[in-house]
Amino acid sequence: MEITTYSKFRENMKSYLDDVVNDQKALYVTRANGEDVVVLSKSDYESMQETYYLMSSPKNAERLLHAIDEANKGLGVKRDLIEL
């Protein structure tokens, strides 16, 4: 995660925003007289929101974590999609 000051962010906003979107990395902006902020691309933010939603149900979180563990162990099964 890149870190910059509010002043530098304001001076180079286009460049910083382009980097956030193109590199898919968050930008940490420090402020002297306020809470620091994190700048994310819309797609990264939506991805985080979706993950939060999927993990908010304990049962669903358990299923997902189990599936990830199996996939990491090479126990996944590749299947073809059915065309409608």
Automatic annotation (TrEMBL):
Gene3D superfamilies for the chain: 1.10.1220.170, YefM-like domain
Pfam families the record matches: PhdYeFM_antitox
InterPro entries (alphabetical): Antitoxin_Phd/YefM, phD/YefM_antitoxin, YefM-like_sf
PANTHER family with a match to the protein in the record: ANTITOXIN YAFN-RELATED, ANTITOXIN YEFM
Family per similarity comment: Belongs to the phD/YefM antitoxin family.
Function noted in UniProt: Antitoxin component of a type II toxin-antitoxin (TA) system.
NCBIfam families registered for this protein in UniProt: phd_fam
Name of the protein this chain belongs to: Antitoxin
Species of provenance: Algoriphagus aquimarinus
Classification of source organism: Bacteria, Pseudomonadati, Bacteroidota, Cytophagia, Cytophagales
